[in-house]
Amino acid sequence: MARRSRLDGLDRALRALGRIPEAMREARTETLHEWADAVEGTAEDHAAVRTGHLRDQIEQRVDERFGRAEVGVWDPEAMEYAYYVEKGTSSMPDQPFLVPAFDEHRRQVTRTYRAAVRRHLHGGSA
To answer: Which InterPro entries match (predicted)?
Structure first.
């Protein structure tokens, strides 16, 4: 009987190991979306608002397949203005909104990912 319980334990361990890659992918996707939402919201909060057009142009892009998240201004017509606001010009001081948003949420990624991996490994959902 001791031999059978060892095999049952091995089967359980192998099933748990088999869940790791999918749990990590799910956790990565969850983390990317959570991070992008947070950065986008903070960038919108920091954006200079005269008309609101710049703030409304801030968007996130999440590529789950390649595990990449980006937040920025993607509209070609607004991109140049966004750069001038972020970096300033000779006649306008800088009013950074993207870099501070990235900096504010940079450290959260690792903690969020670790927590999500644990949840997904133990059968919890997002």
So the answer is: HK97-gp10_tail (IPR010064)
- Contact between 35 and 105 under an 8 Å Cβ cutoff? The reply is yes
Which two tokens mark 47? 């954006």
Contact 32, 68 (CB under 8 A): yes
**pLDDT attached to residue 121:** 85
92-110 pLDDT per residue, tens: 999 999 999 999 999 999 9
Contact 35, 97 (CB under 8 A): no
Q: In whole angstroms, what is the distance from residue 90 CA to residue 92 CA?
A: 6
Task: Determine the Cα–Cα distance for residues 10 and 7; give it in Å rounded to an integer.
Answer: 5
Quick one: 96 exposed, middle or buried, by C-beta within 10 A (0-12, 13-18, 19+)? middle
Selection from 57, 78, 79, 71 nearest residue 100 by Cα: 71
Phi, psi of 95 (to 5 degrees): -135, 70
Domain boundaries, the chain: 2-121
